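Figure 3 (text version): C-alpha cells given as input.
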C-alpha cells in the first residue's frame, strides 16, 4: 500500500473512531496514548511527516490537513496530494556485492524515512566501502579485505587511483563527512556531529550516483 493510500485509510478509520482532529489532539496525546484514537492520530501524523519528507511539493496540502477541523476535509485534501514515486529500487552493482549492498541501501532508506539520519549516513559509508573494495578486486584481482583489512576509505581511493581507476572527484569530501559521523557515533567526543535531514538526503543521493558510476563499463 502506498503512503497516500495508507493515509487515506487511516483518516477514514479516525473518522469511524471519532478521534480528535490532528491540531487539537497533539497536546493531549500523552493522556490518551493507549487509546485507539491516539494511536490512529499518531499514525496519521507519522504518515504526513513521511510524505512531506519524500514529496516537498505536498507541504502546503499537508499543513492544511494538520489544521483541518474535520475528517471529511482531511479526506478531500489527502486525495489532492500530488502523486510521487517512492524510490525503493536497488543499486546497480555487480552480483559480487549486490545482496549485501542492497540490504544496506534498503535499511538506509528506512532510517532516513524515520529521521535516523546518523544511522542512514553510516550505512552509506558502509555501502561506499563495499563498492570501493569490489571495484579494486575487479580491477586488480586483489582482495584488500584479506590483504589490508584495516585500510581506510581515503587510502582505498588512493590505491584505486594508482591503478588508473577514476572515482568521483567529490568522493573524498563525502567520505570525510561520513567519517565524522562514524567516529562520533562509536567514540565519546566533546562535539558530536549530527547530520541534518538535508545532509543525509544529499549523502544518499551522492552515494547512489557514485556507486553506480563505479561500475559503468
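Below: residues designed for each position.
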Amino acid at each position: 500500500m502506498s503512503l497516500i493510500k495508507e493515509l487515506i485509510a487511516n483518516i477514514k478509520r479516525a473518522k469511524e473512531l471519532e478521534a480528535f482532529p490532528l491540531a487539537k489532539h497533539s497536546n493531549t496525546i500523552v493522556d490518551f496514548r493507549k487509546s485507539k484514537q491516539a494511536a490512529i492520530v499518531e499514525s496519521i501524523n507519522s504518515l504526513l511527516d513521511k510524505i512531506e519528507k519524500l514529496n516537498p511539493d505536498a507541504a502546503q496540502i499537508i499543513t492544511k490537513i494538520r489544521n483541518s477541523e474535520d475528517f471529511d476535509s482531511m479526506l478531500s485534501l489527502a486525495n489532492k496530494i500530488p502523486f510521487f514515486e517512492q524510490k525503493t529500487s536497488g543499486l546497480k552493482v555487480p552480483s559480487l556485492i549486490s545482496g549485501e549492498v542492497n540490504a544496506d541501501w534498503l535499511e538506509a532508506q528506512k532510517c532516513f524515512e524515520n529521521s535516523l539520519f546518523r544511522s542512514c549516513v553510516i550505512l552509506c559509508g558502509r555501502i561506499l566501502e563495499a563498492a570501493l573494495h569490489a571495484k579494486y578486486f575487479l580491477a586488480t584481482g586483489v582482495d584488500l579485505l584479506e590483504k589490508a583489512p584495516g585500510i581506510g576509505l581515503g587510502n582505498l581511493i588512493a590505491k584505486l587511483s594508482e591503478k588508473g581507476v577514476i572515482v568521483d572527484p567529490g568522493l573524498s569530501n563525502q567520505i570525510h563527512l561520513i567519517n565524522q559521523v562514524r567516529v562520533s557515533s562509536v567514540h565519546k567526543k566533546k562535539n558530536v556531529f549530527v547530520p541534518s535531514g538535508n545532509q543525509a538526503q544529499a549523502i544518499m543521493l551522492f552515494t547512489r550516483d557514485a556507486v553506480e558510476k563505479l561500475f559503468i563499463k
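Confidence is low (pLDDT under 50) at residues 25-34.
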